[in-house]
Amino acid sequence: PWQHMADTYAWVVEQEFVQVDRKNRTTEQWIFEQKVRFPDTQERRDIEERVRRRMWEEAVNNFDVEAEKWMRHEEELRRMAVERERQKAKALQEELRRYEARIRERRRGEEEIRYRAQHAAAIREREHQERVKGIVEGWERYEKQWASLTASSEPLGFTDIPWPLRTAPKTPEDITPTGVSAFLLSPLHSQNLSRKERIRAAQLRFHPDRALPRLMRRVKEEDKELVSDAVGIVARYLNDMMAREKRVS
């Protein structure tokens, strides 16, 4: 931009000299004519001096005017250049702010995803621990109830019998093969017993010919049919489980 300013200034000066030269030539022509018309007197010399002085003053004045115009023009160019740079800087700052906003938004999204994943993992872990606790406590309760039942002679109802399920059934229909298998074969208890040994221990407790007669003598009359049906269901499931284990082994 400074080279452009220098070129512009040189052009202005050149134009000033051209104009001055034109005026000088016109004035010199007039002076020459005066010399021809008037003899060489002091009065003529005074007139010539005044004319030359006026020519110089006009040239200087014109130069000052044009120089001021040029300076205003260059100042306007500088102002426009500064404004363009300011606008560029402003646009750059705006783009930078938008970029930073996108980065912050992405980080918030990543943090939200991470938080949700951690929260979901914590829920799964808590549910897993609750299931583990429920199975372990259910097995301990199952064994204690069988020990108490064997040592007692009190009358029994359907719900007094420790069925091989995590949740005590209310009717025989609540007993399912999946529930029996998951409860008896869970890896969370009886680690010292094989799968077959666990099934065999349950078969001894729910054998329809050996265990059922002794059990039925203590069952309340109103619950005898329910208990008989439930024992038969459990016995069939246990037989199926043992058959599968034998096929696998």
Summarize the model shown.
With 249 residues, the chain is mainly alpha-helical. It is built from six helices and no strands.
The coarse overall form would be rod-shaped
- Percentage of residues in strands: under 5%
Question: Roughly how many Å apart are the termini?
Answer: 93 Å
Mean pLDDT: 84
Quaternary structure state of the chains depicted = single chain
Main location: nucleus
InterPro entries: NFKBIL1 (IPR038753)
Keywords: ANK repeat, Coiled coil, Nucleus, Phosphoprotein, Repeat
Coiled coil: 74-109
Description:
- The chain has helices at residues 2-37, 42-151, 177-184, 195-205, 211-216, 224-248.
- It has 2 domains: 2-106; 153-248, no CATH class.
- Helices cover 79% and strands 0% of the residues.
- Helix 1 packs antiparallel against helix 2 (42-151) and helix 4 (195-205) runs antiparallel to helix 6 (224-248).
- The protein is rod-shaped, with a radius of gyration of 57 Å.
- With 249 residues, it is mainly α.
- The longest helix has 110 residues, at 42-151.
Features of the shown structure:
249 residues, 2 domains, disordered N terminus, 0% strand, mainly alpha
Any chance you could write out the topology, listing elements then pairs?
Layout lengths: L1 H36 L4 H110 L25 H8 L10 H11 L5 H6 L7 H25 L1
Helix pairs in contact: 1-2, 4-6
